[in-house]
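Q: Hi! First time doing this. I have a protein sequence and I read that you can turn it into a structure. Is that right? Here it is:
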Amino acid sequence: MTPEEVGRRVVELLAPVEATASVSGGQGYARATVDVPPASWADAVRAARDDAELGLDFLDWLSAVDELADGFDVVLHLWSVAHRHGLLLRTRVPRDAPVVASVVDLFPGAAWHERETHEMFGIDFAGHGELRPLLLPPEFEGHPLRKEFVLASRVAKPWPGAKEPGESEAGGGRRPVRPPGVPAPGEWGTTPTPAGAAGAGEGPRGGTPARPARERPARAARPSTGAGQARSDAAPAANEAGPLGRPLPGELPTGPPRQQPDPDAAGES
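A: Yes, that's right. Below is the predicted 3D structure, encoded as C-alpha cells:
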C-alpha cells in the first residue's frame, strides 16, 4: 500500500472519529501520517495493528515533540513486517495536563519508550503503572527535552553571538539563569592552580598542589686508574658516567686501553 492508501485506511477504520491523514516528507521514505484525538489514541493503535490490510504489527519507536503553548505531540511509528509499509500516528495533549492512554497492553515493547517520554517531557501514560526513572537519577528535577529547560552547558559557557532570535549580537541578552541542581561555574570540580600559588585554588574545593621542582642527585666520580683512561678535552670533566657505567650522551667512552696483539709473540707460537 502507498502512504496515501495507508492513511485513508486508518481514517476509515476510526470513523466517525475525526482523524486527519497526510504524508510526511522524505520522498521515497515518506510515511503516512494520521492525527487523532487523545481519547482515540489507543483505539487507533489497536485498529492499525489488527487490520488485515494494514498489518502494522511492529512498534518501531514512540516519542514526543514540544510545541510550546500548543502542547505536546506524542508520535508513534508502526511498521508492517509482511506488507513493508509504515504509519506515523500522532496526537496532541495540552501542556497543563499532558496525559494519554498507554499502549503497553497492545505492544509490550512500548514500556521503555513511554518511560523515557514521561521522564524527558513530563507526559503521563494512563495505565502504564510503572513510570519510574529510566535514564536520570531519581532526584533529578525537571524534564530535559522540554524547550523551556535551561541547558547546563549554556550556564557554564557563554553562548557565542545571538542567544535567541531577536537578541542583539552586540550585547544585552538575557540574564543567565541556573537550573535547579546546577552549580555555579566556579564550583565545577577542582580549579587548576596557577604556578606559584602553593595549592590555593579559586573554587571551594581548593586547587591542585603545585609540584615542587625535582633535583637530580649528584653522580659520584670514578677514581682515575692511570694515563690510559684520560679523556679528550671535548668530553665532560669529573669522570661522570651514566647508569651502570654507560657513557652519557655526547661524551666519549672511557675504560682501559685496548690491548693490541704482538706480532712477534704470534710468530713464536
